[in-house]
């Protein structure tokens, strides 16, 4: 087993899912630990400190969202959530709590292994120094090194992904980007569920727009994707 590929903890109450995911991840070179519920997952994380966690949302006892919340209190370990088809609220909640990605059940174990490798590769990449120390648009300010965002002097509770997306938009005003462009340019994903971008844009609008239902900053470009428009003086 090539432990350098990464140590992955799989937390899922379905034994069949755990076994299938373990086999595919091991074929991909990962060292894999297993947990059958949230409490066991938290205990094994504390004991072994894996490089990445694959986490099912719907589990008895401590569910995946609560596990994600507790992990984010102590660690920035990459987290890939497993959600059932149609559970959009859980996907949004997971991303809001700090999950890095999600895969929808039923899923391809091979795709999950590729997604795990992609998320882990991104997490290990050194973050480049920002070209500008501060990005400003009207009452919106981003301090790049401190990674803080304020609007009208009040700090915005942005997740890591939301901050990265907003910083990219502010650095490229007036340019339309497709969802695939944003996946690649903002987060370095060479593949993935493009609805992830839609979820992040929706959450970002709720935090930076005066009226999220009628956005003036993050505009939808029909047939293309999104464009950031600076506020008019």
Automatic annotation (TrEMBL):
PROSITE patterns: OMPR_PHOB (PS51755), RESPONSE_REGULATORY (PS50110). The keyword Phosphoprotein applies. The lineage of its organism: Bacteria, Bacillati, Actinomycetota, Actinomycetes, Pseudonocardiales. The modification 4-aspartylphosphate is found at residue 56. Keywords: DNA-binding, Phosphoprotein, Transcription, Transcription regulation, Two-component regulatory system. It comes from Amycolatopsis rifamycinica. PANTHER family: DNA-BINDING DUAL TRANSCRIPTIONAL REGULATOR OMPR, REGULATOR OF RPOS. GO terms for cellular component: cytosol; protein-DNA complex. CDD domains: REC_OmpR (cd17574), trans_reg_C (cd00383). InterPro entries: CheY-like_superfamily (IPR011006), OmpR/PhoB-type_DNA-bd (IPR001867), Sig_transdc_resp-reg_C-effctor (IPR016032), Sig_transdc_resp-reg_receiver (IPR001789), WalR-like (IPR039420), WH-like_DNA-bd_sf (IPR036388). Signal peptide: none annotated. It holds the Pfam family Trans_reg_C. GO terms for molecular function: phosphorelay response regulator activity; transcription cis-regulatory region binding. One of its GO terms (biological process) is regulation of DNA-templated transcription. This is Chemotaxis protein CheY. Residues 7-120 form the Response regulatory domain. It comes from the Bacteria. Residues 132-230 form the OmpR/PhoB-type domain.
